[in-house]
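ugh ok so i messed up the first submission bc i forgot one of the chains. this is the corrected input, ALL of the components this time, i swear. 552 residues overall. if the numbers dont match what u have on ur side tell me asap before i send this to the collaborators (the ones from the other lab, u know who)
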Amino acid sequence: MTLDTNHDSAIVVSDLHKYFGDLEVLKGIDFHVNRGEVVCVIGPSGSGKSTLLRCINQLETATAGQVRISGVDVTDPDVDIDGVRRRIGMVFQQFNLFPHLSVLRNLTIAQRRVLGRGRAEAERVARETLSKVGLDDKVDAYPAQLSGGQQQRVAIARALAMGPDLMLFDEPTSALDPELVGDVLAVMRDLARDGMTMMVVTHEMAFARDVADRVVFMDGGVVVEEGTPDEVLGAPEHPRTRDFLFRVLNPTRAHAQPDERAADED
Amino acid sequence: MALSQDRGPDVGGPLRRRSWSPLASMPRTRRTRVVRGIQYAVFVVLLVAVVLTVDWPTIREGYFNLDKARPLFPEVLTTALKNTLIYTAMGFAFGLVLGLVLALMRLSQVAPYRWLANIYIEFFRGIPLLLWLFFLGYGVPTATGRQLPFSPYSAIVLGLGMPAAAYLAETIRAGIQAVPKGQLEAARSLGMSQPRAMVSIVIPQAFRIIIPPLTNELIVLTKDSSLVAILGVTVGTKELTKFGRDELNTLVNATPLVVAGLCYLLITIPLSLLVRRLEARNARAR
Ligand SMILES: Nc1ncnc2c1ncn2[C@@H]1O[C@H](COP(=O)(O)OP(=O)(O)OP(=O)(O)O)[C@@H](O)[C@H]1O
Ligand SMILES: [Mg+2]
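and heres the new structure output, hopefully the right one now
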């Protein structure tokens, strides 16, 4: 893959530290996502992936370091954070749809209250976006009436309806039954093909391999390794990356001895 | 012990304990039948005793006297019941608005707001309602030399609404805290400001969660509204309790109190049934 240094950066994270009390969760992260790029972040549980993602749209406040979104320093206390967030779509593991609102209202409420769009325009955008995720027939349903996969696609549509420059995904398929994962990943593939800038925390290695321009492996609050999917997933350099990939790809053999593993890999 | 008994008397063995009652040695189904039979028997004996000892003519004459009830209508409905409803509604509306403000203050990042709300809530939860009503109705006029403006409505609304706000604030706060954190995060991620996210997303869900306890508070307030009887309201502003008491004096008969009581039940029983339905629905939804 080509790393064009003149390319506009969508996200630039520099020397980011995050403490929860005494626990240092992010230990100096340097990370960037270029415009139009799809970056998948992988790593073991507790390595700080969600925390990094949440520092990017300031759901968590970094302890030290800087996050720039399209050149704007969002760690600056005086920044118009609501203005920045308007341009960043966020998709959560638990969907977080608004249960008291219909699907249509889930998609229109922020368009109307935040962007000040009129009702007709907001509903037109909502219907268009819903048909993109294959749910035009669920306009009047309530979230509780939908399957997990449908809810997650509505959540993606809700973020897209705001016309974001950038989409953040935090394990969007981890709460789904296996047979529902495909529909959500298909929507994300389409989005990537249309050129959306995406940062995706995921355990779906096949998705990372096929869709990502770049894969970042995090462990223990640092970026251990990054590169193209072929590099990071195909020929990992770092032992921690290899160890992680072995465990993800062979979940039933997670407790195998390292020497056994070496034998397996032959 | 339960095990050996369940098998019945024929399996007595070395483990079998000596029972303290003849019931314990019966098989379970028979024992259940006997116990239930005893309960019915006690009930019937008590019922017969009540029927025989009560002086029914006096009861009918003194409490359920149709001749004394007739002149109460329609005023008991058009004035007294109506005023009870109005006072309760005004107190509740005032309490809800102030309660919401207090709940938000309790959840505020600004410590003095939290302190103020705490002091308010503890004060009104600790003060007897009757004392507070005396204070507004008689204490304030005595001290200042004049009535509160819009008397007696101001005293009624503040009298019922301010203490209600203290209880409602706690209920509303619990409701807000019961809304999952992800809801606020999702709203903020869409670019909503904190106040906007509270108004559009969190508070509507909080109220949905607390409809059953709110309805309970409404029932309590309906009954508490009877205490405004002490404010010495005029003919047109009497509510059920004051009305019942005045008619008791006029008619020298307790029937008006019974009629007033039935009118309260007319309000509270449907509300209570509503709460049960809502709670059952919530339990199913979970
Ligand atoms: N709000 C919080 N308060 C305290 N500790 C936290 C908080 N959020 C996360 N942590 C801790 O920070 C560490 C990193 O958490 P994080 O959620 O970022 O990990 P993750 O890589 O997303 O893991 P997973 O794959 O399980 O989602 C964990 O040890 C977690 O317990
Ligand atoms: Mg996570």
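quick check: Residues 66-285 of chain B form a domain with the MetI-like fold fold (CATH 1.10.3720.10). that seems consistent at least. Residues A 49-50, 170-171 surround magnesium ion (ligand 2) (CB under 6 Å).
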